[in-house]
Amino acid sequence: MKLTDLQTDSIRSIKKLQAYMRKNSLDAFFCADIPNVRYLTTFSGTSGFCLVFRDSAYFITDFRYRTQADSHVASCETVIYTGNLFDFIRKKFFRRTAGKQPSIGIEDSLPVGTFGEAESKLTGCKFVRTSLVIEKLSSVKYKSEVKRIRRACSISGSAFDVLTQEDWVGKTEAELSAMLEFNQKILGASKESFDTIVASGPRGAMPHGVASAKDIEDDEFVTIDFGCFFDGYASDITRTFQTGPGVKPALMKIYQVVRDAQRKAIDAARAGVKARNVDRAARKHIEKHGYGKFFGHGTGHGVGLRIHELPRVSRISEDVLEEGNVITIEPGIYIPRLGGVRLEDDFLVTKDGVVQLSHFSKDADYYISTHGTH
Amino acid sequence: MKLTDLQTDSIRSIKKLQAYMRKNSLDAFFCADIPNVRYLTTFSGTSGFCLVFRDSAYFITDFRYRTQADSHVASCETVIYTGNLFDFIRKKFFRRTAGKQPSIGIEDSLPVGTFGEAESKLTGCKFVRTSLVIEKLSSVKYKSEVKRIRRACSISGSAFDVLTQEDWVGKTEAELSAMLEFNQKILGASKESFDTIVASGPRGAMPHGVASAKDIEDDEFVTIDFGCFFDGYASDITRTFQTGPGVKPALMKIYQVVRDAQRKAIDAARAGVKARNVDRAARKHIEKHGYGKFFGHGTGHGVGLRIHELPRVSRISEDVLEEGNVITIEPGIYIPRLGGVRLEDDFLVTKDGVVQLSHFSKDADYYISTHGTH
């Protein structure tokens, strides 16, 4: 069987985890977090576990997923369990460990109920809690992953282009959201990567204003934050456009500040730079114009198999950007009762700077200039 | 402020949890599971915690959700935390507990990382792991909840009706799925309640065949399993329709067996009956016709704030149906390489039987008889 690029890279992921295990004296690592399982195996189903030893790796699932696992999982040996998961694991993997007390890494995300079950069944084992191990490994993307993220960005961009050909004014936020999500799916996305935000007029002051029943009106700003999954990988894009020429000058001014702030952050980002300095570049510009207290969130985050990943790009981030990170840069200004502006794109971090993966006009009048006012 | 029906009922939910706490000698209960938090508070955001004492209850969230919490949460006092959550909880609630060692119930779904944090900060407290406490309470629905599920079912039914007016043949499964999801949103759903399944022809043999790039063809069965959220509550419906008169007789026969099996299960269901006997009623009919080994899943499950809830309606279920449960009844037969059939509706359990909440024709030829063959 010829392996796909993702399958080949999943073998590298297992090796990276095994290197971590050796360094941290772990005999085994148990992973139940679905995006992390996908990273280690390419398995896209919703029920499966990885049990990795220093020189072998197993994907454990139930009979429903046998066919899917057989055709997808190349990095691990697939084993099908029946009955209690940890009874099965004990019998298959930990039968002859008397006196050895193997140490098993578990993830912070594991539910306490599952952990309690593991403890009670795998009595000879020592469990070691770990935090963000696979999340850290997967924050540096393979080319195969960047390719998927780029494609997700491209689908989102095209879907948005189709949306700008529609008449927004008179439609509700929820209608625009439904249309945009439909466009993404028709263009090849499996689904939206999060609940689409459409926040128009004064609602634009809410950074997370999920699309509501409010009508889009003339001469207001509409902020649309959206994305999709393609082959497991996410895009995350925000645009703010005006629906007419009569948007208040105070808001038009904010628009330019946000646009320039995003530029400053883009210019500051490259491998080796502290992520908080990228945040700082955007924030400093916004503060300089007196809007500091209206920018209440971080400048960005990693994106990949999850919509929010490492590295964090915020004031308090301790992360340093690495070559292969894919991050969002998304400054915003939100003024209660008036409205808000946010611009967001996805970027691949390189040693010389960043490569923009998402593409769409950032002119505030894009919608009216291509579509016409009525 | 006049309370909504859901808000009034959330006050009852807190009281039910407090009764459980008294019965089980718990001084407090910490809930971090988002659907459970919603059940206790009506809060629809994605970040918030409940800390319930025997005679008071608190909803703990961060500043981003202050406005939303103030206007929604009636059952708890809202408190806004900053910094470390458990530092905040210790200072605010457990400062004067020296020597008392209050016992705090936690849920099995709590991540071990969060639990570890709680243990290290709330040093004077004793933690008691609980399993499915709020899940059990919320399996008996209030009228306010049934109303929302009924509406979700009604939106899904109308959206499906619109879909049957489209020409299916020649479209891909993914296109049908995108259109159906769009229809649900335009009709008032906030989103789909799970990834829509469209499994046509031989793909119908996969119980969970998420919509693919396969074209829908003439003279095959198409199984569509779909649902939406309305005001937080889910619908879950499956129909299998033929796209032409020439579906293989073996499959047409299976259709009738599944339809009759669903009827048997419906007739068996009422408050006081063991859920596994409802499963038994459907399964016995399918076994009698020789398809027992092709019905590899349970007959149904509860539905509400989650798409899968208590009670379980399966062979191994220990649950007894109660008045106010809302369950799916969804037998199916799946024959490798040939195809499959599943029919699913949502039902309110009463003392006399069940009331069907989802409505749509179950005639295999509904699509071709209303739409015409080409």
| Oligomeric state of this protein | homodimer
Low-confidence stretches of chain A: none
- Specify the CATH class of the largest domain in chain A: Alpha Beta
Task: Return the CATH architecture of the largest domain in chain A.
Answer: Alpha-Beta Complex
Order of helices and strands of chain A: HEHEEHEHEHEHHHEEEEEEHHEEEEEEEH
- CATH-defined fold name of the largest domain in chain A: Creatine Amidinohydrolase
The overall pLDDT average of chain A reads: 95
Distance between the termini of chain A: 58 Å
Largest interface: A-B, 31 and 31 residues
A few lines on this structure:
The structure is a homodimer of 374-residue chains. Chain A has helices at 5-23, 34-41, 66-72, 85-93, 112-121, 133-137, 143-164, 173-186, 249-268, 275-288, 366-371, and strands spanning 28-31, 49-53, 56-61, 77-80, 103-107, 126-130, 191-192, 197-200, 221-226, 228-230, 233-234, 237-242, 300-302, 309-313, 326-329, 332-335, 339-342, 345-349, 354-356. Chain A is an alpha+beta fold and 374 residues long.
